[in-house]
Structure formats: C-alpha cells, structure tokens
Amino acid sequence: MEEMKKGLEGVVALDTKISFIDGIQGILMYRGIRIEDLVDLPYDAVSYLLINGKLPDEAELNEYSLKLKENRHINCKLVDFLKDLSLGSEELDGLRTAISCTAHFDEENNHHTVDANQNKTARLVAKFPTIVAALHRGSHGLDVISPDNDLSHGANFLYMLTGRMPTELEAEAMEKDLILSAEHELNPSTFSLRIAASTLSDMYSAVICGLCTLKGPLHGGARKGVMDMMDEIGNIENAKDYVLGKLERKEKVMGFGHRVYKTYDPRAKIYKDVARRLAIENGDTSWFDMAEEIEHILYHEFVEMRGKPIYPNVDFYSAVVYKYLDVPAELATSIFAMGRVSGWIAHCMEQYSDNRVIRPRAHTI
Ligand code: CMC
C-alpha cells in the first residue's frame, strides 16, 4: 500500500489548464494570466476566460454578458419559496437548497450535451447573485428586487441586495471581489465538485457539492470568521490581547495561513488595496486600521518570532472589504460562492472532457 498523506497534503490528483499557483513566490494565474492583470476586467470577461479557456474579444464578451443578463431572473415560484425558506436558516444552506430547486426548474438539468452544459453555465453564473440577494431580503421581510440589466454583475448584486445604487468604487470592489474569488486550483470545494463530476453526475449536483464544502470554517467560512472576529475585537486597542490570547489557547486566527501559499497570498494584496480605498471613501478607516494592526501582530508572532510562513490569506482583507460594503457577515460565504461558481463550472467541464472516476484508496488500520 502507498504511504497515506493526511489531508492529501502535497498529493497531485489531476492535471488542469484552468489555474496555476506558485505558493512560494505568491503567484496565481487563471488560464496562464496573472491575477494582477485580470483584476481590472469585468467579472463577465474573467468568467468567460475560466470557462472557455481564452479571454473574449469584444463581440464574444457582449454576447456572453447579454446571455448572463437574460438569465438573471429567477422563477417566481422560487422567489416565494425563498421567502419562506430563508426565515431562520443559514444563508448558505438557503443558497444550496435554492440551487437544488433551480435544477428542478431547468429542463436541461439531466442533458449532458456541450450545448446544454453551456446553457446551464449561463444560468448558474447569472442566477447566483439574484438568489443570494433574494434570500437575504426575504429573510429580513424586505421586498425582493429585480435585476437591473444596465449594471455589471457585481454592481447589480449590490443593488439587488441593498436597493440603492452602489458608488463607482463599491461597484469596482464587488467586481474585483468576484474575480479574486473565482478560481483557486484544487481547493477543497473544487476537489469535491470534481469528484461528483467524475461520476458523470450533472453540473448542478456537482456545484452543490462545491457549495457544501465551501461552507466549512477552514475554507470559505473563514471570511465570515474574520468578520465575526473583527466585531468581537471591537477596536484597535483590543487587537493585541485578543490575538495573543488566541495563539496562547492554540486557536486558529481566521484569515491567516494557507496549505499552498508560504508567502503573502497575491489576492490578499489586491483586497488590501481595495479595502484601503473603501476606508478612505467611507471617511472611517477604523476597520482597515484594526485589520492592519492584526496583520502586524501576527507577522511579528509567526514570521519574526517562530519562523512560520503564515500570512493573510484571501479571506482576511476580503472580510474588511465586506465591512465597508456593509455586507452582513452571514452572507460572506454565499458571496464567495457567487464568484467561485465560474471556476467550479470550468473544473466540471474539464473533468467531463477527460474523465476517469476519482476513487482513491484508504489504508485500513
Ligand atoms: N492561526 C493560528 N495558527 C495557525 C494558523 C492560523 N490561522 N494557520 C496555521 N497555523 C499553525 C497551526 O496551528 C499549525 O501549528 P503547529 O505546527 O504548531 O501544529 C501550523 O500552523 C500548520 O497549520 P495547519 O492547520 O496544520 O496547516 P494546514 O495546511 O492543514 O491548514 C489552513 C491550512 C488554511 C486550514 C489553516 O492555516 C487555517 O486553519 N487557517 C485559518 C482558517 C482560514 O483562514 N481558512 C481560509 C483558508 S484560505 C481560503 C479558502 O480556502 O477558503
């Protein structure tokens, strides 16, 4: 029997063309393009890139964006169902159920042709934000807001969530957030999705596997963990005692550390810059200052004192961005999923196109 690697650490499970990570140098590429060169594009263009393997030209982008806009609406029966469903349930649980319902409304759900999968792709990418916003408003007794097709993917989400037009910077921040969340090689949710796809299960089922895995606090749930932690700390003066207390009790500080990155996560750098700009626009830099203080304390404790390469990951400054966008913490994982769905679909298609069922062995002890 082969040696067992706990947590599959360092195990290479498959080949992919979708993304590349150099965890030592802090490089992340989608389809061979560095994330820093993608982050100023519209989310629609990056979604197209991940799914189709190349950046769209102008006509292709217009066509893809139009297809997404045409698919933003959700079935009115689903809207009513979401209003009842969302009362008292966790937002991500509601999203998972809503995606499952959407599959029932999709006549092509169990059709596995390339055309059917392209149609399902547009439906999934387009409907995620509408569902997340509808679930949230429904659970707070607010009217559900219809999509505004004059707005970008990210700006439209903020509008449907809050009922107010986002500022230019808020809209930019949301688009960047979705791009930075869109793809990350064989992370836990993508791996679980690829296992489902490898059994030739349908795209909706595979995406639901991704959602269920993203939920955990050691994965996508960490973003909510950071927002809760910032609320708990309250102000910058409390940061040091709080963080040192966590380390003494051997508890994890959410938003730090990574299985692959042993340096600063390149996404965290971009989020940090967006968070700083939002703080300035808001005229209140206290969340940003507290986050930077936590970063400094942990750099001293981990890197300088213990020689451990533990830096902010994608979830740390994204949580600060959400604070400034006034996004409730319960929504953080669902919004992460709104971005990640493009990467998940790309992996689903890649698995279908060159499939072998994923079935490892266990060491019986
Ligand atoms: N706070 C305190 N200690 C930490 C942290 C942290 N955030 N991250 C790692 N360590 C310590 C850990 O206690 C262990 O110490 P020791 O060797 O003394 O036992 C060592 O560093 C290695 O940690 P590990 O948990 O064995 O490493 P891993 O590769 O299994 O886990 C991780 C990676 C991301 C799960 C972990 O760093 C962690 O739990 N971080 C906090 C949760 C978080 O922010 N998750 C988001 C991950 S990135 C985005 C995503 O996937 O969604």
Q: What is the share of helical residues? A: 55-70%
Beta content: under 5%
Structural domains: how many: 2
- Small-molecule binders: carboxymethyl coenzyme *A
CATH superfamily of the largest domain: Citrate Synthase, domain 1
The total strand number stands at: 3
Mean pLDDT across all amino acids: 95
How many helical elements? 15
Provide the CATH architecture of the largest domain. Answer: Orthogonal Bundle
CATH class of the largest domain: Mainly Alpha
Largest β-sheet summary: 3 strands, antiparallel
Instruction: Determine the structural class based on helices, strands and strand pairing.
Output: mainly alpha
Classify the fold: give the CATH topology of the largest domain.
Citrate Synthase, domain 1
Listing every helix as H and every strand as E from the N terminus to the C terminus, the arrangement reads EEEHHHHHHHHHHHHHHH
Radius of gyration: 20 Å
Q: Strand arrangement, largest sheet?
A: 1-2-3
Distance between the termini: 12 Å
Oligomer: single chain
Describe this structure in a few short sentences:
The protein is mostly helical. The protein has helices at 43-52, 58-70, 76-86, 91-105, 114-139, 153-162, 168-180, 188-198, 203-214, 222-233, 239-248, 266-282, 286-306, 314-325, 332-353; strands at 19-22, 27-30, 33-34. A hairpin with a 2-residue loop joins β2 (27-30) and β3.
Could you explain how this protein is built, in words?
It is built from 15 helices and 3 strands. It is mostly helical and 365 residues long. It has 2 domains: 27-217 and 334-353, Citrate Synthase, domain 1, CATH 1.10.580; 222-324, Cytochrome p450-Terp, domain 2, CATH 1.10.230.10. Strand 2 (27-30) and strand 3 form a beta hairpin. Helix 2 (58-70) packs across helix 5 and helix 5 packs parallel to helix 6 (153-162). The longest helix is centred in the middle third of the chain and has 26 residues, at 114-139. The relative contact order is 0.15.
